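Structure ticket #2291
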Amino acid sequence: MLDELETQAHEFYTAGEYTHALADFSVLREVRARREGPYSVKYLRALHWSVRCMRPLQLWQDTDLLCRELHAKYVRTHGRGEADTVDVAEHWAWAMVHLDAVNAAVALYVRTADAVWDTDLATARRLLGAAAVHTRRLADDSVDALAGIALTHTTELAESFRNLAKRLGNDDAAPSIDLGGATPV
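Resolution: structure written out below.
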């Protein structure tokens, strides 16, 4: 029965029926958490798909809460630089941008870029680009996005971040975008 519900949820998601998909994935989350535990692969998968459904529905507060849980569990079980962890970090940062927690979003983008720097430089630069774009939205232009964040690749990230920030310049016409190309509301 649960496998059929998961199949149905994926069909709803593929069809763009995010509300129906979210309802199904939410049921799966609850059942899987009770039966298999909050770290089971199937529970984490249902949680991740719930996050994916919430984004097009613009459920930013709920996305923030679920991503907080999922990201922490993925960091413990997968590590910061694993693809699922990075995907959740991107969803979470985008929710934080919409909740006006730009500093926290920028820090998450930077920490995630640091985690993938050695294994996926293109993704690291993309994440830094998002951080640079959103740093421009902060009221205090002197804010150093890397200040206070413990990083492995501090020098490389700082140089790359400075280069990206210079390329952005002070042109207020450039819209802030997320990694999927959507602009914030």
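Closing remark: Helices lie at 2-14, 18-36, 41-57, 60-77, 83-98, 102-116, 121-135, 154-168.
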